[in-house]
Amino acid sequence: MINIKKKLVFIIILLIFLQSLLIAHRVSFDFNILVNFFQKDAAINQSVKNISAIKIKEFFEKNNIKQFYIDESLENDVEFYQRVIEYSFPIKFNNSSKIIISKKSKIDDCEFIFRHKFRNVHECK
C-alpha cells in the first residue's frame, strides 16, 4: 500500500514537471534568463530584439529625458512602436512631448539630437 502511494506521488510530480515544461515552451520562456538573472540587463539582452529601442532608451537616460512622442511616420512600424514604449518605461510616451522620434531627418522648428539607423530623435520648441 505504501509502495503504491510512493509511485502515485512520483507520477504526479513527474506530470507536474512535464506540464511546466510544456507551458514554458508554449509561452517561449527562455531558461537563459532564469539562469543569468543576476547579470545586469540579462532579460533585456535576451528578449528585446529591436536594437533601436535599446539605443534610444539609453540616449534618453543619458540625457535625462522624461517623455517622448513617436510621430506618424513610425506608427506603421508596429514592432518598434510597441518595443520603444514598453522598454523605455518609466520614460513616458506623451502626445504633447517636445522630444519626437521620427523617420524624418528634418522636422520644422525642431533640432536633430540623435539617430539610430533610420530612426531620428528631434527636440522641438
Descriptive account of the structure:
By secondary structure, the protein is an alpha/beta fold. It has 2 domains: 2-35; 49-124. The chain has 5 helices and 5 strands, in the order ααααβαββββ. The chain has helices at residues 2-26, 31-35, 42-47, 51-62, 78-87, and strands spanning 67-70, 92-93, 99-102, 110-116, 119-124. It has a 5-stranded mixed sheet with strand order 2-1-3-5-4, covered by helices on one side. Helix 5 (78-87) links the parallel strand 1 (67-70) and strand 2. Helix 4 (51-62) runs parallel beside helix 5. The longest helix is centred in the first third of the chain and has 25 residues, at 2-26. The termini are far apart. The model has no long low-confidence stretch (mean pLDDT 84).
State the helix count: 5
Task: Give the topology string: H per helix, E per strand.
Answer: HHHHEHEEEE
Query: Largest sheet, if any?
Result: 5 strands, mixed
- End-to-end Cα distance, whole Å, is 81 Å
Class based on secondary structure composition and strand pairing: alpha/beta
Chain-averaged pLDDT: 84
Largest beta sheet: what is the strand line-up? 2-1-3-5-4
Tally of separate domains: 2
- The global form is elongated
Helix content: 40-55%
Report the portion of residues in β strands: 15-25%
Please state the CA-atom Rg, rounded to the nearest Å.
23 Å
Q: Give me the count of strands.
A: 5
Low-confidence stretches: none
